[in-house]
Amino acid sequence: MSDVAVVLIVVLIIVLIIRGPKTLPELGRIFGRGVREARAEAEKLRSEDDTPKDDSAAT
């Protein structure tokens, strides 16, 4: 198992102990929403980079 997976499991256990099992779905939704927004922003930046530049104004 990779180090990242072990760290994520330990963090999940700590959150479960501190926050309780009832708040895990809410935390999952918040995390999922953040990942979705980050992906959308990354895709927007990629699409801006892919658009052709208008070089006629420079000459």
Q: Give the overall pLDDT as a whole number.
A: 83
Low-confidence stretches: none
Shape, per Cα inertia axes: elongated
Computed structural class: mainly alpha
Question: Which sheet architecture does the biggest sheet show?
Answer: none
Rg (C-alpha, Å): 20 Å
Distance between the termini: 57 Å
Q: What portion of residues belong to β-strands?
A: under 5%
> Secondary-structure element sequence?
HH
Percent range of helical residues: over 70%
Number of strands: 0
What is the count of helical runs? 2
Summarize the model shown.
With about 60 residues, this protein is an all-alpha fold.
Summarize the SSE layout with pairings.
Layout: H1 3-19, H2 24-50
Describe this structure in words.
The protein has helices at 3-19, 24-50. With 59 residues, it is mostly helical. The protein has a domain at 16-41. The longest helix has 27 residues, at 24-50.
Essential attributes:
single chain, 59 residues, mainly alpha, 75% helix
